[in-house]
Design goal:
Order of helices and strands of chain B: HHHEHEHEHEHHHHHHHHHH
Helix content of chain B: 55-70%
Radius of gyration of chain A: 18 Å
Oligomer: heterodimer
Number of strands of chain B: 4
Strand content of chain B: 5-15%
Largest sheet of chain B: 4 strands, mixed
Number of domains of chain B: 2
CATH topology of chain A: Rossmann fold
Helix content of chain A: 25-40%
Number of domains of chain A: 1
Largest interface: A-B, 31 and 25 residues
Strand order of the largest sheet of chain B: 2-1-3-4
Shape of chain A: globular
CATH class of chain A: Alpha Beta
Number of strands of chain A: 10
Structural class of chain A: alpha/beta
CATH superfamily of chain A: P-loop containing nucleotide triphosphate hydrolases
Chain lengths: 240, 373
């Protein structure tokens, strides 16, 4: 399998503070790659460098074959992104949000129409198509947000704490959507606080103070640290 | 081009869906236009006039009657003493004290010459100057009346030598202050609304987090910015249209010049203002900050625009600053085209500077808008 994300000694400093300290890893096509760490460990800064909205201080990275320094716009054409801050427009309806984001990714109106249809059927949003997004419950918004991030069939989707504040049932449904996308060949790069979600990933990488402390399949990590759950792995690392 | 359409469509939807914003855009400016045009007048009327008549003769009464007859003066009191008059002035109850001396009538008849003392509240120097002119005119006319009364046969040649000027007022025949103010206030409305709306619009997306989402899409900077600003450009021209209509219908301001020229100039002018708004929004993180900075510029621009006070009477250094004030040019152009019927050649200096500003401001705005930090 080819690598769609290659990161080598990627570093970001803000003045004297090193937010991300020479991290290196690869992500394969179709993989669900979990990116774990306590608050302030540098996850969001790392993601922002990978999606091309923050320029790294040093190191190298290629996303879908494009350089994070020089080809940020090509990267953006090939990725989807869903931030921890909910990022659809509250004052537009579900349909209008889909049209807008489809439109700025360069899809034509006919394609947008078919995609909207598919999406609405799939998420069973029939009743709320013409409702303002602001009036929907958070779980629904997150699901729509994820679908919108997939609209232009990106090679990689970056999800920054996508399930924060969502109930367990919706979280479960959300992960089903993630699996489905991964099965269709989309690479998933996801950060999370929930350790049960870490178990769903193919591989996880745990960041502590800007550095990668562990990187392996959840099963192997549990074996290495001689514990039964990812939760204990995380606590062992974070408390070191 | 296609992408641009999606952005413009979205912006218009959001603007017209915002129930708090719509009245601000369309109703507030016109209430302002109507109120300000009627209130912001420099005509000095209702001057609080008082006098101390130490003479009490038919001559002194005739002089007071002259003031009472004038529509500018509101004759209040006859003070029995100077002290009382002065304390009324201190309290702000009167603006002017005219003191008619003892033996006013007698001296006038005997010596044909007399001094009157006039005290004017000059806290507002400009108003005091105007009041002084009014008083002089009334006294001059009184002079003439009294001169005729006192005329003796051998004085005949003096009164014959009476030179008078007959002014003719161009471009504003009736010296109607509204004719002068309405075009200027219209400028304010177009400027304020477009500056505030564009300044806050992008910051708002920063605040709610959608700007980050936009920045991870392959959208071009120029597409996003044009898409964002175009709706406000349209709204600005819409405001101009409604404003011109009100000026014509409600205030009967003459619109002598070419309408197309006014629109041409305004359409370029709004680009300058939108550029400034966008530039401000690039350097601010919250709508409050954007609002404060916009206000800061607005106040300077307005007070140094020549709208309320003539630029010619500002100090040299201030006049230099006004060279960079886009509102100044807009006020000039509106007054020139609307009231004088100036053509494109007459407004060429203003037009070319505005075009230059449009390029500079939008260049700076696009340059400072960063998709990547």
């Amino acid at each position: 399998m080819e690598n769609v994300i290659e990161v080598n000694n990627l570093t970001k400093t803000f003045g004297a503070f090193t937010a991300v300290d020479a991290i290196s890893f690869q992500v394969k096509k179709g993989e669900i790659f979990g990116f774990l760490g306590a608050n302030g460990a540098g996850k969001t800064t790392a993601i922002k460098m990978l999606i091309g909205i923050t320029t790294p201080t040093s190191g190298d990275a290629t996303i879908a074959g494009f350089n994070v320094y020089t080809q940020t716009e090509s990267i953006k054409r090939n990725i989807g992104y869903m931030s921890q801050k909910f990022a659809l427009y509250d004052d537009l309806t579900v349909k209008e949000n889909i049209t807008f984001f489809g439109g700025i990714y360069g899809l034509n109106r006919n394609t947008i129409k078919t995609k909207t249809r598919e999406l609405i059927d799939e998420l069973k949003l029939e009743q709320v198509t013409n409702q303002l997004v602001g009036s929907l419950p958070l779980g629904w918004k997150q699901k729509i947000s994820f679908s919108v991030a997939l609209l232009h069939r990106p090679k990689i989707v970056f999800l920054d704490e996508p399930t924060g504040g969502v109930d367990p049932i919706t979280r479960r449904q959300f992960w089903e959507m993630i699996y489905k996308a991964a099965n269709q060949g989309t690479t998933i790069f996801v950060t999370t606080h929930y350790m049960d979600e870490a178990e769903y990933c193919d591989r996880v990488c745990i960041m502590v103070d800007g550095q990668i402390e562990a990187l392996d399949a959840p099963k192997n990590l549990k074996k290495t640290f001689e514990v039964d759950s990812m939760n204990e792995v995380f606590l062992k690392l974070a408390r070191r | 081009m296609k992408i641009l359409g999606f952005i413009i469509q979205k912006e218009f939807k959001q603007i017209f869906r915002n129930k708090g914003m719509l009245p601000i855009i369309f109703i507030m400016p016109f209430i302002q236009l109507i109120i300000l045009s009627n209130a912001a007048t420099f005509d000095i009327k209702n001057i609080k006039f008082s006098y101390i008549d130490n003479d009490h003769t038919s001559f002194s009464r005739a002089l007071i009657n002259k003031f009472e007859a004038s529509k500018y003066f509101h004759v209040l009191t006859d003070f029995p003493s100077e002290q009382l008059a002065n304390s009324a002035m201190l309290n702000g109850d009167v603006d002017i004290i005219l003191e008619i001396p003892n033996h006013f009538e007698r001296d006038l008849q005997k010596e044909k010459h007399i001094n009157l003392r006039v005290t004017i509240n000059a806290i507002d120097g400009a108003a005091a100057g105007v009041e002084s002119v009014y008083i002089n005119q009334i006294i001059k006319s009184y002079n003439k009346d009294i001169g005729l009364k006192l005329m003796q046969p051998n004085d005949l040649q003096i009164t014959a030598l009476n030179i008078e000027t007959i002014p003719s007022f161009w471009y504003n025949k009736t010296l109607n202050y509204k004719t002068f103010m309405v075009p200027g206030i219209l400028v304010l409305l177009v400027t304020m609304i477009t500056l505030f709306l564009s300044g806050m619009n992008i910051v708002r997306e920063k605040e709610i987090g959608t700007l980050e989402q936009i920045n991870v899409t392959p959208i071009k900077k120029s597409q996003f910015i044009i898409g964002k600003l175009f709706p406000f450009w349209v709204i600005g021209l819409g405001l101009l249209s409604i404003g011109l209509l009100i000026a014509k219908v409600l205030f009967d301001v003459p619109i002598i010049g070419n309408l197309a020229l006014m629109y041409l100039y305004t359409s370029i002018y709004i680009l300058v203002i939108l550029g400034i708004g966008l530039f401000i929004s690039n350097f601010t993180e919250t709508q409050q900050q954007a609002m404060f900075i916009s206000w800061f510029f607005m106040v300077i621009f307005i007070l140094m625009s020549g709208l309320f006070t003539p630029i010619e009477s500002m100090p040299k250094w201030a006049q230099m600053i006004t060279e960079f004030n886009p509102i100044k040019y807009f006020v000039q152009v509106m007054r020139m085209v609307m009231l004088k019927g100036s053509g494109i050649n007459d407004i060429l200096p203003q037009l070319s500077k505005t075009i230059l500003f449009a390029f500079i401001m939008n260049g700076l705005a696009i340059w400072s808008y960063k998709k990547t930090n």
